[in-house]
Amino acid sequence: MVIAPRGPRQDAVPEADAAAAGFPSRLPPHNPNAACGPGLPGPPHFLSAHPGPPVLVGGAARPLGRTSGRMRSSLVPLGPPVSQDRVITSFPKCYTPAACLQLREHFHGQVSIACQRRSTGTVGLRLSKVVVVGDLYVGKTSLIRRFCRNVFDRNYKATIGVDFEIERFEVAGIPYSLQIWDTAGQEKFKCIASAYYRGAQVIITTFDLTDLQTLDHTRQWLEDALQENEPGTCFLFLVGTKKDLLSGAACEQAEVEAVRLANEMEAEYWSVSAKTGENVKAFFSRVAALAFERSVLQDLERRSSAWPQVGNGDLIRMEGHPPETQDSERPSSLGCC
């Protein structure tokens, strides 16, 4: 019986196609400019359609999903382009200067230069954690869904535990994302939600403009959230919801009390309406810009401290005495035997 040699499998992927698809090849590709698999030298891959979130594979950032074998430009961002209303080119303004975290109307100079040079490090691959807290039925979920999905529903059910949305931006030409956590306002879920406060870059404390008792409760909500984070590491916002339910005069009167409390909290104040969408996009754009700017500055500081300083930096001075010789270690005189 003669057994014919087996031919190649029909579903086998040629080595050249495997390299173009992002799979590791047995040998380095002959063309140094061609796309390579993980761990091999060459330009990175970029998404072509329906990508997942970027992940780290072999120390290099790679997106999940299909990849393209050719790189159109060294400045092509990971992932598909964000929607136009998520593109931030200039620094968003605050709601009122009376309770504002930053009055500057432009990005920090170092941040602008880093963005122009595309030297923002890994900021574009990170998520900034945003935690939204407040009483039951003040409109936390409505606020988040209006921004992330552009929908409003009067019949929302109370959030059980926690939920979150991830929203992608492009800030000064750099991709950036917010992970927005929606926490339950019910007391029985407070112990569960508090575990998700840790590691927040932004804390948004919400209240109902039509019920100022919920404004008084924001002190405790903020205190609970801050207990899980290091002091001075979070941007704080105080947000009044349901602005559409108040007349102009009534809204101004409620805002006077809210601004006073925001200043006590060292927070920035905003009034919004999830029903009409008033100020919702502007508010979250402001949140994204502030969080992005701090992330870039922190990354620049880490990278600068990683390099040894040469020149006028602090020098290490070695204090000591000249080395002693063998003769100096001997006794000055030797006794006679």
Automatic annotation (TrEMBL):
<keyword id="KW-0547">Nucleotide-binding</keyword>
<keyword id="KW-0333">Golgi apparatus</keyword>
<keyword id="KW-0813">Transport</keyword>
<dbReference type="InterPro" id="IPR050227">
    <property type="entry name" value="Rab"/>
</dbReference>
<dbReference type="InterPro" id="IPR001806">
    <property type="entry name" value="Small_GTPase"/>
</dbReference>
<dbReference type="GO" id="GO:0046872">
    <property type="term" value="F:metal ion binding"/>
</dbReference>
<dbReference type="GO" id="GO:0015031">
    <property type="term" value="P:protein transport"/>
</dbReference>
<comment type="function">
    <text>The small GTPases Rab are key regulators of intracellular membrane trafficking, from the formation of transport vesicles to their fusion with membranes. Rabs cycle between an inactive GDP-bound form and an active GTP-bound form that is able to recruit to membranes different sets of downstream effectors directly responsible for vesicle formation, movement, tethering and fusion.</text>
</comment>
<keyword id="KW-0460">Magnesium</keyword>
<comment type="similarity">
    <text>Belongs to the small GTPase superfamily. Rab family.</text>
</comment>
<keyword id="KW-0342">GTP-binding</keyword>
<feature type="region of interest" description="Disordered">
    <location>
        <begin position="311"/>
        <end position="337"/>
    </location>
</feature>
<feature type="compositionally biased region" description="Basic and acidic residues">
    <location>
        <begin position="316"/>
        <end position="330"/>
    </location>
</feature>
<keyword id="KW-0449">Lipoprotein</keyword>
<keyword id="KW-0653">Protein transport</keyword>
<protein>
    <recommendedName>
        <fullName>Ras-related protein Rab-36</fullName>
        <ecNumber>3.6.5.2</ecNumber>
    </recommendedName>
</protein>
<keyword id="KW-0636">Prenylation</keyword>
<dbReference type="Pfam" id="PF00071">
    <property type="entry name" value="Ras"/>
</dbReference>
<keyword id="KW-0472">Membrane</keyword>
<dbReference type="InterPro" id="IPR027417">
    <property type="entry name" value="P-loop_NTPase"/>
</dbReference>
<keyword id="KW-0378">Hydrolase</keyword>
<dbReference type="GO" id="GO:0003925">
    <property type="term" value="F:G protein activity"/>
</dbReference>
<dbReference type="GO" id="GO:0000139">
    <property type="term" value="C:Golgi membrane"/>
</dbReference>
<dbReference type="GO" id="GO:0005525">
    <property type="term" value="F:GTP binding"/>
</dbReference>
<dbReference type="InterPro" id="IPR005225">
    <property type="entry name" value="Small_GTP-bd"/>
</dbReference>
<keyword id="KW-0479">Metal-binding</keyword>
<feature type="region of interest" description="Disordered">
    <location>
        <begin position="1"/>
        <end position="43"/>
    </location>
</feature>
